[in-house]
Amino acid sequence: MENNFKTFLNIANKQSNLGFGLVALLTAGGERIFSSAVFMCPCNELNFVYGMVFLLVPALALLLLGFILNKNTWKLFTGLCRRPQSGSPRCRWKKLTAACTAFIQVSMTAVVAPASWIAVALLNGSYYECAMTGFNVTAYNKLLCGDKSSGCERGLHKLPCRTGSSEDRDDVLLRMRAQSQILGWLLIASVMLSNLLLTCVGRCTSPVSYLQLKFWRAYVEEECNMFDSKTAEHAKELAKRNLESFFSQTPPKNIITPSNKDWEKISSLYKFSTKDHYYSTLHRYAEDYDETGNGKIRKGSVMSSEPAETTPSVFDFVDGGGA
Fold it and tell me: Which residues contact 268 (CB under 8 A, 6 or more apart)?
């Protein structure tokens, strides 16, 4: 059973749309459970605060979790405060633009879960009903109550608890639920439209063809999986050597480990150039070194005679190692 679940998650991670759909589905299910098991409107002056907390605070927590779990967040910020600000103003501006582009990509991924939470909560209507019955604005209260009795406005905060006149209560709650669901569908439509537009812009400005992009994704996925496996294997070998040296009190055997500078080279955010289009920072590192490791040679197998063009926004999957 566990192996089947892991297989399903691997498939989801390889397909960006399916991965986003899985996140949205899990978030929606979590919201429904949370709403039925925990939420209970107080039906007093705390209605607005209570309803907005349940609507927005979990979304904020999911947004922060999305940033925390994204590899690109830490690629972008790790060592940022200690990097020297060298180069011309134009070079520094390009670096800032690339960093902002990467941050926008991370944000677009991180916003899926919180947007799903808010959308499902609005479609359900319970949080909105509780919050807006405590929204102490006279004009809005009059809009809800319409031509009903004067006691309607004074007793709005009690409506989520199903107290008061049945006819007035049902009419007002139905109106608020309709408002909530309209906002929910508008949010869903706006997120989907924004995602479609950004995807179209990215694909339209892509300097490579559809089939090469498909190959690129396959390569990055394989490189990421093999890198994780090789990293664990090398770490295990180094730890084993050090333990054997300690307990046997003998000099350790020689094991080559990349230097800090080498790690930094392959840990930087990837930027594509049509002049020498490597498929990842690791690919660029491997191609840049000759047989002795002392000089740098760019080999023709991955070079292009076209003018250089940096397009980091198209290849966000490269740094993420997948979806």
Answer: 75, 281
